Amino acid sequence: MNAAVIDEGTRSTDGLAAHARISAVRQGYIQDPFISLLTPRPRTLPTHPPLINIGTYVRATSIDHLVEDFLKAGSGDKEGDTPIVKKQIVSLGAGSDTRFWRLSSGPFRDYIASYVELDFLENTTKKAMAIRKSSQLSSVIGQSAKLVKGGTGLSSDVYHLLPVDLRQAVEETLQPLISSESNILSPGIPTLFLSECVLVYMSPVASAAIMKWFSDSFQVRLCSLYDHLILLLDMIRMYVE
After folding, report:
1. For 124-175, what is each residue's pLDDT tens digit?
2. pLDDT reported for residue 76
3. What pLDDT, in 10s, does the model give residues 60-73?
4. β-pairing verdict for 159-163 and 146-148
5. Rounded distance, CA 212 to CA 203, Å?
6. Largest CA distance in the chain
7. How far is CA 90 from the centre of its chain?
8. What are the respective helix, strand and coil percentages of the chain, to the nearest 5?
């Protein structure tokens, strides 16, 4: 099959995930006031049956809890006995994900030092434009936001949306994130690596290289993978070896 067709199929999975989230929100399984702002014509999308909505709920809430626990780790309680320990989050294949807005408009706003979303250029371009067009989305990011990479990405003091083909060498795609020139990520800050149904679309060699880079680059790190486990076994085996 033509490589361009395969890539388009991979990129289109974001639309399927957004549709599932729209359906779950509509039926009250989850709360997300931002997903409709990043999904074209959300009102025209049909509602999924309960089984799919339940699956979306389980996936979404489990990862939400993990992220929130990571952000709270090492920080004080509501009385503020201990200073907040700011964290970094790197989301691979972020697509139309709204987690940054949900975190930044709630009690975890001050817990985030840097939030980085990486995806195909086609997906980041659409998302950057949607953010610029929506006052609700752009107001959360703040006035420091600006388009980068010729309009295919967006960057602010905390939030960074960048076009990257993760199948390429990590020296070209990920290493620039921790360079002194970019000042996007700091190796000394606790960092969470999120990957939802991303590595399974890549070769075991490319996936293992990403995991190794992340492990080698940050002093304190946590990795959250949501993928088709059987198809990831070769990648995991290669990484361990």
Report:
1. 999 999 999 999 999 999 999 999 999 999 999 999 999 999 999 999 999 9
2. 67
3. 999 999 999 999 99
4. unpaired
5. 14
6. 58
7. 6
8. 50, 15, 35
- Distance (Å, whole) CA 231 – CA 219: 29
pLDDT digits (tens, 9 = 90+) for 173-209: 999 999 988 889 999 999 999 998 888 888 889 989 9
In 3D space, the residue among 155, 147, 138 whose CA is nearest the CA of residue 34 turns out to be 138
Task: Tell me which of 52 and 230 has the higher pLDDT.
Answer: 52
One-letter amino acid identity for 45? Answer: L
C-alpha closest to that of 231 among 196, 203, 194? 203
Looking at the chain, which runs of residues are DSSP E strands? 87-92, 112-119, 146-148, 153-155, 159-163, 191-196, 221-226
**Residue reference for tokens 């599932």:** 20
The two three-digit tokens of residue 105, written as one number: 């408009």
List of residues 6+ apart from 83 with CB closer than 8 A: 75, 76
Cα gap 196→55, rounded to integer Å: 14
Judged on CB neighbours under 10 Å (0-12, 13-18, 19+), 1 is exposed
Percent of the chain with pLDDT over 70: 88
Contact 24, 56 (CB under 8 A): yes
